[in-house]
Hints:
Layout: E1 2-11, H1 15-33, E2 35-41, H2 46-52, H3 60-65, E3 69-74, H4 82-88, H5 90-96, E4 101-107, E5 125-131, E6 141-144, E7 152-155, H6 161-176, E8 182-187, H7 195-208, E9 214-219, H8 220-229, E10 236-239, H9 241-254, E11 262-266, E12 274-278, H10 295-308, H11 311-326, H12 341-353
Parallel strand pairs: 1-2, 1-3, 3-12, 5-10, 8-9, 8-10
Antiparallel strand pairs: 4-5, 4-11, 6-7, 11-12
Helix pairs in contact: 1-10, 1-11, 1-12, 6-7, 8-9, 10-11, 11-12
The protein binds nicotinamide-adenine-dinucleotide, 3-isopropylmalic acid (IPM) and manganese (II) ion.
Catalytic activity: (2R,3S)-tartrate + NAD(+) = 2-hydroxy-3-oxosuccinate + NADH + H(+); tartrate + NAD(+) = 2-hydroxy-3-oxosuccinate + NADH + H(+); (2R,3R)-tartrate + H(+) = (R)-glycerate + CO2; (R)-malate + NAD(+) = pyruvate + CO2 + NADH
Cofactor: K(+); Mg(2+); Mn(2+)
Family: Belongs to the isocitrate and isopropylmalate dehydrogenases family.
Amino acid sequence: SRSYRIAVVPGDGIGKETVPEGLRVLDAAARRFGFDLTLDHYDWSCETYKKTGRMMPEDGMERLAESDSIFLGAVGWPDVPDHVSLWGLLIPIRRGFDQYISLRPCKLMPGTKTPLANRGPADIDFYVVRENTEGEYSSSGGRMFEGTPREFVSQESVFTRHGVDRVLKYAFELAQTRPRKKVTSATKSNGITFTMPYWDERFAEMAKSYPGITTDQFHIDILCAHFVQHPDWFDVVVGSNLFGDILSDLGPAVAGSIGIAPSANINPEKAHPSMFEPVHGSAPDIAGKFICNPIGQIWSGAMMLEHLGEKEAADAILRCIEKLLAEGGPRTRDLGGQAGTEDVGRALAQAIAAGG
Ligand code: NAD
Ligand code: IPM
Ligand code: MN
């Protein structure tokens, strides 16, 4: 039968609570749709770092390379500096496996509340397509004259034609599959005078190859305002690494809760494993209580199944999430409920098993 090997990295904080629920639902889907998942569990985290001085072992990437996909929780904990933990685990995976697309759906689900007045599910349904390997997240730069009055730090943004064109192309191709066929570009060419005009140039060039797609572009500042005031304007929003990061927390917040937002770090050519993780982080403020929302993780699991070719199973998981939210099933506090993390995972696994 069909079989997939999944590397499981719960990471830190609530990642340890959401990942088991994601696996519970994936297991139910595998049984129902007749495929096998072989799991390799890795406890790489800030705890590992404190014990060994590394976030993952030296051969970590080689081990992950043997998997079909990576299922990750969250990385980062207050006792290790974020730039150390994230650049020791999450970012090297995204870059090392050339997962150049970060795909982040933002959707107001029936039965959940948006903080925006007079908005419903028809108004908030778009994708953020984030460039995931270059841009503002570069390792080029440094610090000089440390501790002196002349202290100097710099970090260079790096945009390559190859890197920009491939993410733009992905966004246009995605828009082709959507009813509204629209791509919005996030830019800041009034203030950032080399990289952003270049991005705009490539965007205009790419648009020429897609005459059926409507295009739009906004500077990132007013674009944030439009996310709040006019979420219905957006269909596919494409942005650089940093702008995409910002928009992909704002989008889910506008759609109700960051706790349900999924993400896929994709290498579309399938030359390397892709990685699936919720948009949120390790949430130290609520970790350890099993009150966090596991839906972002579970939905990320559905995106993983779709990437692996198990579309039917992926659709079933999404249907069950929609039904649970629409019909008043168990919900966690971020959605105004009282349920625990495991209650939600169990309810969804049962719904899958029952043929939902
Ligand atoms: P966060 O996403 O962890 O938390 C922000 C807020 O949202 C908190 O109040 C938290 O309680 C709430 N929240 C997040 N997920 C939730 C869920 N599933 N259910 C209910 N509420 C939820 O962001 P942060 O506080 O900026 O970051 C905490 C740590 O996580 C930092 O170390 C940060 O670097 C890291 N981080 C990692 C990732 C990742 O692994 N991809 C993403 C973001 C942040
Ligand atoms: C995300 C996170 C990460 C990012 C951080 C933790 C490095 O915010 O996945 O959105 O900026 O990519
Ligand atoms: Mn983020």
